Amino acid sequence: MASSPGPRDGTRETFKAYEIHLAPDERTSHTFHGRDLLAPVAAMLALDELDQFNHCRPISDPVLLPLDFAQPPLRSGSVIYIDHFGNAITNVQAQLARASPALRVVVREPRLGPMRQTYSDVAEDEPLALIGSSGLLEIAVA
Question: Nearest 5°: phi and psi at 20?
């Protein structure tokens, strides 16, 4: 159990944190995890019944990590997360990347060149930089 600041009166309101273990099985779609994995958790969350969901366990000491987004003028960004595909998600938001039309992404070597729209904009196994579904600049390999 952890606390967060209350609305306006300086009181503290209690919230719960959970670790959720869901893995695809033979009934799970390979392309629709929003429905098959996330929707059941969202329903339990809405009903305040996560304690009864056997794929969840309460966390007594959650850690909130600071997240500083890159600021203008854009000179550099940082990788903040590596997803399960191996894509490196940065702290550069889409609007900041789009406001820098001459933006070139360099990850030591090689230069990744201009921003791309989709993974298919480069050949298979080629590195690229694009704005991912999170609205952040991602570095990936097609």
Answer: -115, 125
pLDDT in tens, 94-107: 999 888 877 778 78
Tell me, yes or no, if the pTM score tops 0.85. Answer: no
What's the total number of domains in the chain? Answer: 2
Residue 68 included in any domain: no
**Among residues 86, 74, 71, which one has the least CA distance to residue 115?**
74
Domain containing residue 86? 79-141
- Shared domain for 83 and 135, answered yes or no, is yes
Q: Is 129 exposed, middle or buried (0-12, 13-18, 19+ CB in 10 A)?
A: buried
Q: Tell me how crowded residue 137 is: count the other CB atoms within 10 A of its CB.
A: 25
The C-alpha atoms of residue 44 and residue 51 are separated, in whole angstroms, by 9
Clarify whether residues 97 and 130 are in a common domain. yes
